[in-house]
């Protein structure tokens, strides 16, 4: 039996969405550090500012423990979305890091527009995946080789978990915890955080808002 | 008409709970920086590590913009819970800061065991309030002058909003956003984050878990 905790690498970049990142980390933190260890990583180690809204403003800063260059190979990768995704889509260092880590990681997950980065890196080719509903086009524009699922709270395909927008990352994380550590661990994490877990990956209360914000922003 | 954004001061301390903090900040961030501006504050400015689980382990670090000494008077105060609450209950600097800020703030809010700190500071005397359900006793032990509400997702009394554990801070924050900026702003924030808002403050799916964890930890 493997007694080493799984190493979770949670990717930061300027303009990451706060709840995309800390919703999943909260739930994985509750599982206990004997099972999973949380690491923060960005292109450079040090402070990284979160997104405030959709228009590029920045807010609270989180410290990246590792830079891309000195990060170990993680067992689980978490890629959040946020207004900064648009910049990172054009950042070869980010796409290279996602490709390199995904090659060896057991599980690769994204929240919100994080799946746009995975798609741009070519990692979702031939797979089913989802993304934020209000700006779904940001993801779909990155690759036509992905089977984009418009109505899903999250999608699991192979070792990839992709979730819908922001809060959906928490439901996806509980599904991952259930898969990795059992249903009791997932139920405990939900109780501990007093979170009403939406267990049905295919039930998506926000699917009818497809590209509502993307249209307002003139993206589609 | 007041065109200045409200200044929200979000309090950090070692062992704060990640989702207690970033759930509310996510929702307030979506409202837009023309209406509300997010500030991070701790006893000393600089990095502050979040809680990992209930037993005092520490994880990701967030940067406090302000120390208690150089923080401006905030319009909205947010006090998270977390395993570090137990230490802060014995920290006069924290209790003094909460008293001083609460005197001038328009709104004072807490998530989870954050209400234990407000109660210890004497700020909830004569008021109705709630707290984390699994460790409810941490709050109730601080003051018998508070009308502790066992079954509530959140409680509003005067300028104080106190929520139940962790995830409940998001429902409370949407209620605060509705009160401060209107129901359209709250509904937009919920849609943007693809969050299913639990609107009924009195409906508490976790009330039957009262002190379950506190008993396991030998607190009651």
UniProtKB/TrEMBL annotation, chains A, B:
Matching InterPro entries: Class_I_gatase-like, DJ-1/PfpI, INH-QAR
UniProt name for this protein: DJ-1/PfpI family protein
GO MF annotations in UniProt: lyase activity
EC number: 4.2.1.-
Superkingdom of origin: Bacteria
Keyword Iron-sulfur: no
UniProt KW Repressor keyword: no
Keywords in alphabetical order: Lyase
Domain spans labelled DJ-1/PfpI: 12-178
Top enzyme class: lyase
């Amino acid at each position: 039996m493997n007694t080493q905790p799984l190493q979770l690498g949670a990717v930061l970049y300027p303009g990451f969405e706060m709840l995309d990142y800390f919703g999943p980390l909260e739930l994985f933190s509750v599982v206990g550090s004997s099972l999973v260890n949380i690491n923060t990583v960005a292109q450079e180690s040090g402070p990284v500012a979160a997104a405030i809204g959709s228009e590029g403003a920045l807010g609270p800063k989180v410290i990246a423990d590792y830079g891309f260059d000195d990060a170990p190979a993680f067992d689980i990768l978490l890629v959040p979305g946020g207004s900064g995704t648009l910049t990172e889509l054009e950042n070869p260092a980010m796409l290279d890091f996602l490709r390199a880590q995904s090659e060896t990681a057991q599980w690769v997950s994204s929240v919100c527009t994080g799946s746009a980065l995975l798609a741009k890196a070519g990692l979702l080719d031939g797979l089913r995946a989802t993304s934020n509903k209000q700006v779904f086009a940001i993801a779909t524009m990155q690759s036509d080789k992905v089977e984009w699922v418009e109505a899903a709270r999250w999608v699991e395909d192979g070792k990839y978990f992709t979730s819908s927008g922001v809060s959906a990352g928490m439901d996806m994380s509980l599904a991952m915890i259930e898969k990795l550590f059992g249903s009791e661990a997932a139920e405990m994490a939900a109780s501990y955080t007093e979170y009403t877990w939406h267990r049905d990956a295919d039930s998506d209360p926000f699917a009818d808002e497809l590209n509502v914000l993307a249209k307002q922003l003139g993206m589609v």
